[in-house]
Amino acid sequence: MKIAKSKKCIFCKTIFEKPKKLSDRQFNKRQSCCRKCSDALRRKGEYVKCKTCNKKFYRQRSVRVGIYCSKKCSLKNVLNEKANGWKGNNVGYFGLHCWVRKRLGKPKKCKYCGKKEKLQWANISKKYKRKLDDWIPLCVVCHRRFDKITKLSIEETKTIRKMYKKGITQNELGKKYNVHQSTISNIIRNKIQYYGKNN
């Protein structure tokens, strides 16, 4: 029986010669030119195209749904129409804010007071739609005033502080302004930022 001195790799189709270390019987059984091709032949998965960059990548047999070659490619499509969980205009409150933050980035300066700390994106129309021109950067204080979350105005908080100094209790002030006693306490001790500081 004649033993060939060269062979064609089954995987990459390149011709390789018999290494000196291998015996004739071992070389006769060999089907691949290198370790890389040998490992590729043992694989039971398949090569598929990446949905983002169209690059071919190996997908294991156990992973049937993998459509991206890397995490970087998968994150590119998480926030747009190609995402599997895309809801369009039916997105929730927190999902929409995440979408806006990814598109517009981190806010740098409050539009009203000019602060550069504790900034958020606020919706102008209050309709919460996917329109990037419908969002403005605001600090926490201005955002709460813009959304009218605070029950008390700055003038009312000043009056509360003056009345407390005159001897009116926190419970009485809470009942008068229809807020909890702890809110009155926080206003007096300057614990709530958006009510202003005690001068």
Kindly describe this structure.
With 199 residues, the chain is an alpha+beta fold. The protein folds into 4 domains: 37 residues, no CATH class; 31 residues, no CATH class; 58 residues, no CATH class; 42 residues. It is 34% helix and 12% strand. It has 8 helices and 6 strands; from the N terminus they run ββααββααββαααα. The strands form 3 sheets. It has a two-stranded antiparallel ribbon. A hairpin with a 6-residue loop joins strand 3 and strand 4. Helix 7 crosses helix 8. It is rod-shaped. 10% of the residues are buried.
Uncertain stretches of 5 or more adjacent residues? none
What is the β-strand count? Answer: 6
| Major sheet summary line | 2 strands, antiparallel
What is the SS-derived class? Answer: alpha+beta
**Helix proportion range:** 25-40%
Amino-to-carboxy terminus distance: 104 Å
Q: Averaged pLDDT, please? A: 79
Give the overall silhouette. rod-shaped
Strand order of the largest sheet: 1-2
Write the layout of secondary structure elements.
Layout: E1 6-8, E2 15-17, H1 24-29, H2 35-42, E3 46-49, E4 56-59, H3 71-76, H4 93-104, E5 119-123, E6 135-139, H5 140-146, H6 154-166, H7 170-177, H8 181-188
Antiparallel strand pairs: 1-2, 3-4, 5-6
Give a summary of the structure in a few sentences:
The chain is α+β, with helices and mostly antiparallel strands. The chain contains 8 helices and 6 strands. Helix 7 packs across helix 8.
What attributes does this structure have?
199 residues, alpha+beta
